[in-house]
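FIELD: query
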Amino acid sequence: MSRHVPKKRELPSPDPVYNSRLISMLSTKIIIGGKKRLAQRIIYDALNLIGEKTGQEPLQIFEDAVKKVTPLIEVKAKRVGGSTCQVPIEVRAFRGTYLALKWITKFSRERPGKKMATKLANEIIDSSNELGNSIKRKEETHKMAEANKAFAHYNFQKL
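FIELD: result
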């Protein structure tokens, strides 16, 4: 019998202003060089900009954007015989939000402009309106899984 005990995933503590775990997860994605306060300030500035531009509750728009960007299916490479197959698998909830936040931060960094807060705000607004590069990435992932549906019978039990 294995002595390996599965590690329990610790949820991040909620952020101090909005009391949201999702925002604290986003701040860990934005962190550069260990400066968490700077990452939080960028997020709070972006949420203020979202509130000014849309006139709605910024936290609600952010949560809506993350829901719309979260993928349901992704592909993983599995070696079968001598070839490597792209096997579509379902995405668990935590990994889905992780991927959504990763894509939002990645594509907001790639946007043109100077301030990260404005770039992040624009990416979140575009994602909530089902536009932007992070939505395109989700659709690409789903198309890739749909194209490789033939390999779905190779199950991934031990991942």
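FIELD: remark
The chain is about 55% helix and 10% strand.
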